Structures
1.
Amino acid sequence: MKYIFEVKIREGHTAEEYADAWVRASELIQQAPGALGTELHRKIGEPDRLIAIAHWASKEQRDAMEAVHDPQIDAIIKSAAPFVEIRSLGAYEEPEWVVMPAIPRHHT
């Protein structure tokens, strides 16, 4: 499953500043059972907006990690809070279907 967030960088700060905090927190979070990786993507044409995606094996495992409240993770998140606005876009199950383009066959 995926947890997706929109991140807006406040004026006077950079996406790189947030990315530093994101990576430091993610390195700790990824030690939790069920953690499957994280991604940050810049919005095209808006370098002050990012989409953050955290991949988890299950909602229950993610909820268990959240219930622990690791003080190191909390401190990292609090350190980034003054220069970002974060809006949860929600939790999403893995897709029930995926439509992939067909690979064209070359005739010889």
2.
Amino acid sequence: MSEDWFKPEDIEILAEAANTWRNELAHEKREYHPDIKAVKSIRLVEHLNYAIVLRELGYEDAEIQKLLDQALIR
């Protein structure tokens, strides 16, 4: 993934944001209001899903990064 999409130090923060949103949805508290971290966390999951599928199809990491750079709008 391009460095400017997700900084390594942000991954834990985004994971926590995604988990908070998941808990809200799972327990139907209806109190949570997604913020920019929640939206970015969903984008991270989207990138990971594409990377996993492309790797399973046999693409190399450099090829995956090129494809993601071309296919996903930031």
